[in-house]
Fold these 2 entries.
Entry 1:
Amino acid sequence: MLKAFTLLAAIVLFASCSNKKTKEVTASSPFQASPLDSAYAPLRPAVQRFTIDNSKVNSIQARNGTEVLIPADCFTRANGEKAEKVDMEIVEALSLPDFVSSGLITLSDGRLLLSNGMMYINARTGNEVLQLKEGTSLTVSMPT
């Protein structure tokens, strides 16, 4: 059950790498804008950056123990071309203070849900946000 939840959370938070055809998009901050940004900034979990070779199977281990298994050739550009070098951003939010400072909430029917962890994943080449190739997926394991 926990693995299914973890995978679902990763898929939901991986929206910037969806299979939708889009034009080149400049990557933005993983955090929601807030009037309290100056207060939240020092408390937010770190944006971790990794560079991978898309032609190979990759495994990333983030600082707090989240592991991401990335299959070979899974990232494509908006025009369908395979990306070569991929810059990955990962943010692990594993505690209530992380959720609050990151502006993360999970709701169902307007009610707050309890979560053991969330994460943000983004894949880019330069300023172009990449997509997951149809039929591929990432495997995510979180320590919570």
Entry 2:
Amino acid sequence: MSTQREILIRNRHPRLRIDTRAIRRVIALLDLHFRYTAADLPKVTPLARKRSQDPAASAVPPGELSIVLFDDKALALLHGEFLDDPTTTDVITFEGFAEAGSAGEICVSADTARRFSNAAGLDFSRELTLYLIHGWLHLAGYDDLEPSKKRRMRAAEKRALALVGDAIPQFSLKSARTPRPSARR
């Protein structure tokens, strides 16, 4: 039986309210129950294929998992620094170092989730949870840079969302305050 991993959650978004217990529950569900399909296995990393043979092993490597929730500006800075692309993005995933006891880090933009969910008429909490799942799947060996790999990633996201079901954390993002003009006398 696998042991529950250490999950560090940091909220770096000034207006985002999160439920850390619910986020941990989503990751625990994925760690415990998410499995590769036969179509996935030839396309995931060799280490992921090896882990898939152990029925008690999570698809994500063992070790501490870090989750950081950012605003667009902060995530764009990371995107520029580590991937030479200073544009806004939804999720950045950094692989961990097994010898250091790290599974990796998932960095998501709450602003991008809000903007996309509003434009598409989707639930904000579900969209932000999808970004967390997407990052987790990257750590599990999925990729989405080529069309065939992207289709597998989308199918895995769908399976993971179904697995999570009603355990989706409730996130709230307060609107940015606009400064009031000072009253003149």
